[in-house]
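The following record pairs a protein chain with its ligand, AN7.
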Amino acid sequence: MYHLECIECGKTYSKTDVLYTCECGGLLDVIYDYSTIKLDMDVLKTVCPSVWKYKELLPIEQEPVSIQEGGTPLYKCDRLAEKIGVRSLYVKHEGMNPTGSFKDRGMTVGVSKAIELGMKTVACASTGNTSAALAIYGAKAGIPAVVLLPEGKVALGKVAQALMHGAKVLSVRGNFDEALDLVRKLCDEERIYLLNSINPYRLEGQKTIGFEIVDQLGFNVPDRIVLPVGNAGNITAIYKGFKEFMKLGITDRVPKMTGIQTEGACPIVKAVRERADDIIPEKDPETIATAIRIGNPVNARKALKAIYESDGTADSVTDDELVQAQKWLAQLEGIGVEPASATSVAGLKKLVDSGVIGHDETVVCVTTGHLLKDPEEVISVSAEPIVVDATIEAIRKAVLEN
Ligand code: AN7
């Protein structure tokens, strides 16, 4: 039992309506009748985490389009904790999802919803990961997928996935924000289902990151979640997950939601500095973290609410800081992430150094995408391989030399 509700004017819509925003332009939320939801704690405590473990809290009635998403590792990272100066640090590595990013959680629900609603084509604009996930879930469902990518600004691995899994890939001469405006128009005019994170059903899948963190911490809530922010869907979704567990009496508090952007694309951070409830869009966002090269995040109003309500914050990091954090994750913990994901750890370091985050907090950083998504960035920030002759002398010299 659920319906859609506008976060601005409260107008409600039926679950059979095909729409993405309210008549008033406001964002929509999926609201359940929580009094009818009964979760069996014995089952919750024994079944392994995955998106569909929490199906009573997901808005899909048919058999979902699934390739086993979620259930990603929550690593305890003591070496990284020491480097950063916090007592207790975990990394939720969303790069370990089937397509290599957290977008799978949203797409298993979103594409399932497209099928339930009888839609014949699915579409999105994307900085890369959303398009990869849409292509793959579209393929699994047997429904055509169309993806609009900002030309020349999408990491190689993501384009490769979208192409191989059979999406129609359009390389748009414009940035992500422009591509999103265009695909929204297309989906309003044609019977094509929009699966960007403005679609509230996608966020329902992504809220399971919050459920899993609680689950993997033995039904405890961390003090703080730190994660990268682009279109600001994921921070909103994860917060909703924590709130729903609290509503159901499974937990008794929520963590401080802390969003990190890059200095070249940080409208949410600027809004938080002003305590504003909306952003001023940035025209020419630029960063090495192409996944979050976004100037006009569509979920800004929801995300700002999540940050303020949870007593969280937002901050920005430089490209150099995020590359440093990417190397720490890789070399201290064995966790390979794409540049955007490393902003979480870079931001945590900055906020601990400045005293905003206490040394005694239990923190979970969410690393949203896998290292192999963006091999070109990795090569560009790493030393070159050492080329040697195929002789034991040459190899010994190279190995023993400092
Ligand atoms: C690795 O794929 O927007 O704040 O089109 O790929 O929920 O947008 C990707 C976003 C963080 C930001 N980390 O999440 C897309 C897209 C990675 C990402 C984000 C993205 P949101």
